[in-house]
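Below sits my pick:
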Amino acid sequence: MRPKLNEIDLYFITDSRLTKKTVLENVKSAIKAGVKIVQYREKEKSTGEMVEEAIQAEKLGADYIGVSPIFETKTKLDAGPSLGIKLIKDIKKSVNIPVVAIGGINLENIDGVIRTGMTSIAAISAIVTKEDIGNECRKFINKLKNNF
């Protein structure tokens, strides 16, 4: 396991369809706020491109597991039904690599996620739809850090 992955708190994901600014501006603001990992995500890629990236990622070896969607989410319409926080507990007990919770997580429901022992979360619309991306990132990071 790579040491840096143990330091992940907020996992920032871009979405050019939701942001009020540019993706680059969002990433710069998030990094300035203390974000340590960014996923560049664009939903407009072809199936072929998304298959080529998945195959390449598998060949390189996975460093973490993303569990999604924890709660109902509007950013990924084909995400399926929400899995809830019980699944996080079960997965965390079963693996030794980092687990990142994603899907519908916001400042109102993050406490339940944190109570599962989750130290890494990803939030999209709860951050990129806000005017001050850096401030929103800091709020999430503070919530995560203050509970551990």
